[in-house]
Amino acid sequence: MRLKTSSLLFALLFLPIVARSQTAVPITDVSERAHVTANVGGIFLTEGADWSGAGVGASLIYNLHPQASAFAGYDHGVPINSIDPSLNLWWAGANLKVHPNAAIGFGYVWFDKHTDGGLAQLVIAKKVMPRLSINGVAAHIFSRGDLTDFEYYRIYLNYHLIGKGS
Amino acid sequence: MASFDLFMFLNVFLGGFNVPELGSKVSAWLAAEGERYPDLKDRTDALSAWLVTVLSEAEPNMNPAAMKATVLTIAKSIVQGTAGIDPDAWIFG
């Protein structure tokens, strides 16, 4: 059995599916793989968008692999001044876990009706209590609107509402 | 370990692999040897050792430490039936 090592190792990732004599978790098992979280914290957009304020929102996360998950979420931002409008932020993509407390992600993000674009993010997370973590996100937005590319930062408390895990 | 996992993940787009062949070998191993190790940890360790042997035959020049660490992780997934599940995935939401 002569296989490329990289291919062989990747194939091993799927052995739980192939080795039917053991109980594996099907990819469609929503009760085992899906999570819903709620979050509250701060949102900061750099030059171009120039917005900062408090945010509250929720995310849906779906486990694809021990190191990878898909996500989608929404945040409503309240500005810290009386000039800027409130912010409605939607995002979707996939995260790749590269450390027990860090993931990199790629996806797409929509800021209200004016701005949207590709998303590349680094997520740092630390569980501080059962069902509660403190998170930080640093993201680059590849703007498709009138704005130039800008950076997007969030720091927030993340509460695990629904799903297996602690 | 993290960078090695990333490497593996990216390799989905590179080359071919023979999942059924390897999967059938693992199933055969579990059927033949699994009963000898009623304790899950012992079964994980035994399966890991066997997988390392298979990998060593396929690619003798591979980094042994990285290979053993990766195989142990995968073997735990197989034996404990938690493949694809990261209980802490929610923290990245």
Order of helices and strands of chain A: HHHEEEEEEEE
Shape of chain B: globular
Which term fits the overall shape of chain A? globular
Name the strands of the widest sheet of chain A in spatial order. Answer: 1-2-3-4-5-6-7-8
Radius of gyration of chain B: 14 Å
Reported for the largest beta sheet of chain A, the result is: 8 strands, antiparallel, barrel
Measured as a percent range, the helix fraction of chain B is 55-70%
Got a strand count of chain A? Answer: 8
**What is the terminal-to-terminal distance of chain A?**
41 Å
Class of secondary structure makeup of chain B: mainly alpha
Cα separation of the termini of chain B: 23 Å
Largest sheet, strands/sense/barrel of chain B? none
Residues in helix, % of chain A: 10-25%
Q: Care to describe what's here?
A:
- The complex is a heterodimer of chains A (166) and B (93).
- Chain A is mainly β and 166 residues long.
- Chain A contains three helices and eight strands; from the N terminus they run H-H-H-E-E-E-E-E-E-E-E.
- Chain A has helices spanning 5-13, 15-18, 30-33, and strands at 34-45, 51-65, 68-79, 87-99, 102-111, 115-129, 132-143, 150-162.
- In chain A, strands 1-2-3-4-5-6-7-8 form an eight-stranded antiparallel beta barrel.
- In chain A, a hairpin with a 7-residue loop joins strand 3 (68-79) and strand 4 (87-99).
- The radius of gyration of chain A is 18 Å and the shape is globular.
- In chain A, 34% of the residues are buried.
- Residues 16-23 of chain A have low confidence and may be disordered.
- Chain B is an all-alpha fold.
- Chain B has four helices and no strands.
- Chain B has helices spanning 2-10, 19-33, 40-58, 64-80.
- The two termini of chain B are 23 Å apart.
- The model of chain B is unreliable at 1-17 (pLDDT under 50).
- At the A-B interface, helix 1, helix 2, strand 1, strand 2 and strand 3 of A face helix 1, helix 2, helix 3 and helix 4 of B.
